[in-house]
Amino acid sequence: MNFYVRALGPVQTNAYLLTEPERGEAVLIDAPEAVWAEVAPLLAHDKCRLSELWLTHGHWDHMQGAAEVVRESGAQVLAHSADQPLYEEPERMRSFMFESSKLEPVGVDRWVGQGEAHEALGLRFEVRHVPGHCPGNILFYAKALRAAFVGDALFRGSVGRTDLPGGDFEALAQSIRQQIYTLPAETRIYSGHGPETNVAAERATNPYVHD
Which CATH number characterizes residue 40's domain? Predict the structure, then answer.
């Protein structure tokens, strides 16, 4: 399996591309602005088609490129239903964006939620619901990869902001303790912004949410 990270868009949102050349399939996690131009050459190089797009939550910087990705690839979209209004009516976020930014709604093919298992790329991914930053924030955890893709719930030494509509710090802290800090200590945390971290480091040193 190949693993690519691209920080894109006006607020440098991470997009994660996982390709499995032996299967000829790939998964993209989050879709910031202009992500398709970045991932299309990688897909061609690895001789993979993008089968699925996983959206960790509905904030504009994570779904701005989603409609283009779906048009170009035909990928199936997975997300949490708590953010359905943001996916279907992204103009709700206009006041929190840069004026020149463009938005398109994106259709979700499958709503996923807490505790669901999802098979992709020959691996099992567990979905966990981690609201607080955004009502529909979810993470995708692969035990085989020792990795969790957590959206904007948790960052290295920080947490997602909770001053946006639907934000709730107490809910976020509870989500982090119950859904992220309970993962194995060695689990690598891939966040929506910034560098990777791991469960052990955040449980021990994160100044916002202690274990």
Answer: 3.60.15.10
